[in-house]
Amino acid sequence: MNPLNHVAIIMDGNGRWGLKYKNSRNAGHKVGLKTVEKIIKETIRQKINFLTLYAFSTENWKRPKKEINYLFNLLESFLIKRIDQLHAQNIKIKIIGIKNFSKKLNNLLINAEKKTFKNKTLQINLALNYGSKKELINAIKKLNKNKKKINEININKYLQTNGIPDPEILIRTGNTNRLSNFLLWQLAYTEIFFEKKLWPDFTEDDFKKIIKKFKIIKRNFGNI
Ligand code: FPP
Predict the structure, then answer these.
(1) What strands, in cross-sheet order, belong to the sheet with 6-10?
(2) How far, in Å, CA of 206 to CA of 220, rounded?
(3) For site-directed labelling of 153, which of 53, 71, 73, 165 has its Cα 20 to 30 A away?
(4) Which residues have a catalytic role annotated?
(5) What was the pLDDT predicted at 91?
(6) What b/e string do you get for 67-103 counting C-beta neighbours within 10 Å, with b at 16 or more?
(7) Ligand 1 centre from 24 Cα, in Å?
(8) Which residues contact 4 (CB under 8 A, 6 or more apart)?
(9) Domains along the chain?
(10) Between β-strands 169-172 and 6-10, what pairing exists: parallel, antiparallel or unpaired?
(11) Residues of the chain with pLDDT under 50
């Protein structure tokens, strides 16, 4: 059975779900947040140590301002309401991406990271204003500036995922088969599961089925 330490998720399909059932993309994001909460609980039950969630990409700034504001308000109220509970569950929050949001959201994110820094049960990496190409360019620039050798160990050290094992599983919901500039370096040997369901419809059982399939995959890492 394959060990499982880290699951990464591209939570795609909120907008389509919202339009289909509530005539509003934003309504889909609201229900999508409920799925986030369900999957966090299941990740703890499965004793998985790291969960990385793609919540907002560097490309998502192209969306209408109304939708962007809605998403950030949702995140703000989630942090305000849930941070104590997450902390009590021994969950560590880490942001990957560049924190250049409103002062209020930046502070909420920094405080969430500070408060939960020592927690050990589960680390949630929230990818916010994250883009993998930008992350790699920044890492290489820093290596250059510090006159470090360009090799795999040093690149890993200068990525925002420094110290986090690469994901064994990537799930993308929403019936779209692409990586959308997410963890391009870190996914080199990850098992990828493309799921037809839209994120708000994704359930704990769907998650458990994927884990079950993953556990028995023969992983070669280039060997035979
Ligand atoms: C992709 O669906 C989803 C997002 C860009 C936002 C993800 C946000 C959530 C799941 C809720 C908030 C999360 C947190 C952690 C507060 P899409 O809008 O691209 O869907 P579409 O492909 O149907 O348009």
Answers:
(1) 91-96, 122-130, 50-57, 6-10, 169-172, 191-194
(2) 25
(3) 53
(4) 12, 60
(5) 98
(6) beebbbebbbebbeebbeebbeeebbbbbbbeeebee
(7) 13
(8) 46, 48, 168, 169, 211, 214, 215
(9) 6-130+166-215 (3.40.1180.10)
(10) parallel
(11) none
> How many angstroms separate the alpha carbon of residue 200 from the centre of ligand 1?
9
pLDDT at 224: 86
Ligand 1 in contact with 200 (CB < 6 A)? no
* Ligand 1 near 6 CB (within 6 A): no
Output Rg (C-alpha) for the chain, integer angstroms.
17
DSSP 19-82: HHHHS-HHHHHHHHHHHHHHHHHHHHHTT-SEEEEEEEEGGGGGS-HHHHHHHHHHHHHHHHHH
* Residue from 19, 25, 29 whose mutation best tests the ligand 1 pocket (most atoms within 8 A of CB): 29
The answer to whether 116 touches 87, Cβ cutoff 8 Å, is yes
Nearest CA to ligand 1 atom 8: 55
**With a 6 A CB cut-off, is 95 part of the ligand 1 pocket?**
no
CB-based contact 211:169 (threshold 8 Å): yes
Measured from the CB, is residue 12 less than 6 Å from ligand 1? Answer: yes
- The one-letter code for the residue type at 54 is Y
CA of 36 to the centre of ligand 1 (A): 10
**93 in contact with ligand 1, CB cutoff 6 A:** no
Q: Which two tokens stand for residue 183?
A: 């963890």
Cβ count within 10 A of residue 57: 19
